[in-house]
Amino acid sequence: MSAAGPADAQAGLPGPPRGPAPLRAQVVGGAVLAAFGLFAYAAGRSLPFGTLARPGAGFFPLVLAALLTALSAMVIAQGLFVAGPDVRAAWGDRAARRRVGTVAGLLLLGIAAIDAIGFAATVALLCAGMTRLVGRRGRALSLAFAAAAAAASWFVFQHWLRVNLPAGWLYGSLWAWLIARSAG
Amino acid sequence: MDPFLHGLAVAFEPLRLALCLLGVLIGTVVGILPGLGPSATIALLLPITYHLDPVSAVIMLAGIYYGSQYGGSTTAILIRVPGESSSMVTAYDGYEMTKRGRAGPALGMAAIASFIAGTLSVAGLMVVAPALGRFALSFGPAEYVGLMLLGLTLVAYFGGGSLAKSLAMATLGLLLATVGQDPVAGSERYVFGTQSLLDGIDVVPVFMGLFGIAEVMQSMETEPGQQRITPPRDLLPTRADFRDSAGPIARGTALGFFLGVLPGGGATLASIASYVTEKRFARNRARLGQGAIEGVAGPEAANNAAATGAFIPLLTLGIPANVVMAMMLAALTLHGLRPGPTLMVEKPELFWGTVASMYLGNAVLLILNLPLIGLFVRVLRIPYSLLAPLILVFCLIGAYSVTGRTAEAFTMIVFGIFGYAFRKLDFDSTPMVLALILGKPLEESLRQTLQLARGSFWVFVERPISAALLGLTALAVLAPMAQALWAARRSAAAPG
After folding, report:
1. At B220, phi and psi to the nearest 5?
2. CA B122, CA B12: separation in Å to the nearest integer?
3. Which of A69, A90, A111 lies at the terminal end of a domain, its last residue?
4. Looking at the domain assignment, is residue A13 inside a domain?
5. Interface test with A, best of B396, B423, B456 (most A CBs within 10 A)
6. Looking at CB atoms within 10 Å, which of A24, A76, B99, B443 has the fewest?
């Protein structure tokens, strides 16, 4: 790895463009793990530690939290002294990040809605979103695929295998509202 | 009449033959589908077996159990979503093989390794069952602590890369395992008033997230239309594949059989232990994790051998080694039987009939699975933009069905994002998953040992098995340090 040194500057030669200082992936990872360790230690301090002869509920987690913090410090130290990949380079371009973010967003949306709209509708939402927004497939194909996937998964898992999946409370409420409205 | 021949006669009665076939067929389907495990299926079918005689009931339920071990590898290899937790490690190399157009040989080797291990361990069951059952009883909490620490350290040691990084990830996994109720006193830990965290963090959503969801996220970095898996070339393993797999199958079978016998061991631990062993002994160990057939053959042999080995403590001592065996015990009790040392004498047709049916079941599973490879690999012809949402749906079903609560699906996504981020940071999540599985039993065993020894750590070195296991653990931690020091001294001493 080279950098524009003082000799180059004195000679008036243009050095490589100055970017932000490298942020090594191992250091960032180590810092995240250390944060977990410290958080676990702080959150577990109220647990009874007990004695070696009668270890309490806090014995194992507190020892592990301290160990995790110590090991993370070693990971950070290693990352500072040994060359490794830069974290920004590993993260891909903006379009890639947007696609990955869309996948995470669709999943979170699906899980937030699953109890209300039910499993089959969530599958349809997820499949339509993934094929249309991420896979850039046509609208008709996305909708047809979503409908087929929802129907097939409902039939196999809910109807046939009777796996415990949500049916959706929204439909019951909607039905009750419609009945009440028509009666009124 | 020879007891085994008598067992064959019992197993070959038409009704029992049909029930064995039905059991392995159900087991294969249960193994392939996420969200349905053998324990749940056996629990559902338990009332039906009340109408059968005990031998027929056990033959069918056993078929479901070892059949599920065959099926679990299919989705692990094809889409990196394991049908069963015991196929988690098969996903590493199996899916890499799929990406390289070798899904057929991976599926074929999984079936063949399962058949060989299943058949050999049935032979083991016949020969060493009583002696091995008694040896398993010599494993006390101190020995379990040694065994689990050795397993965790070996995963970190053979994982490649930085030992500190791997050990830190393993420690995080152990810490995550402490979430929920304290296994001894029952008090709450890291629950933060959340009802769903009270039962702890289940490994299934964690695995689905770390590997299934993170894999889809990583694939989505590539432009749509360019994400593709190399179309499958061959459907069956080559001669070189068989040569490379012979050692892993033999080691996986021996290891899996032994770990299956130990209470709490089970097929998942066996497959992980086999993978770790192959990291050290496989012919192409440097390629392990990048699509080496040894990474499929060893763990698949181990989980099938463990499934058979688990019958030993049940049939010879009346001790269930895992949840599925507890279901089997319930089935036997339902029929008024008490498994234990006298079962082989009092009910020889049950013991030997079950053993004989296992030979038959394993052969049926091989015949059933090999022709289906061509059908399974067709899944890979689906464009990735359509396959990716289906993988997410499979993960969602798998996670949701653990408890039927949204919390598990949410856990899956959290770990999916975590797994993706840590892949980017070049951290391997494997030690974390293993530690999450071993965390609770490790804590229970450690606290039991300390209580029994009145707080003295000497107990771990006073007991020979535990001392040997901890010695190997220390060696696995110290060896890389000694190697690094040795290399530094040699480079310092070298001229120039």
Report:
1. -75, -10
2. 17
3. A90
4. no
5. B396
6. B99
Residue B270 lies in a domain: yes
Of the pLDDT bands very low, low, confident and very high (cuts 50, 70, 90), residue A36 is very high
The answer to whether B183 touches B141, Cβ cutoff 8 Å, is: no
Per-residue pLDDT, A4 = 39
CB B458 within 8 A of CB B223: no
A 59-88: CB under 8 A from B: 59-61, 64-65, 67-68, 71-72, 74-75, 78, 84-85, 87
Domain that includes residue A129, residue range: 94-176
Per-residue pLDDT tens digits for B108-142: 999 999 999 989 998 888 887 767 666 767 778 89
**Domains in chain A: how many in total?**
2
Domain end (from A90, A109, A138): A90
Q: Is A99 found in the same domain as A71?
A: no
**Composition of chain A by helix, strand, coil, percent to 5:** 70, 0, 25
Q: In this structure, are A160 and A111 located in the same domain?
A: yes
In chain B, the residue whose alpha carbon lies closest to the alpha carbon of A101 is B217
Same domain, A98 and A172: yes
Q: Is residue B373 part of a domain?
A: yes
Number of A/B CB contacts below 8 angstroms equals 196
Both tokens of B134, joined, read 């008694």
Q: Which residues, in sequence order, are CB contacts of A149 under 8 Å at separation 6+?
A: A123, A124, A127, B389, B390, B393
Tell me which residue range forms the domain holding B170. 3-480
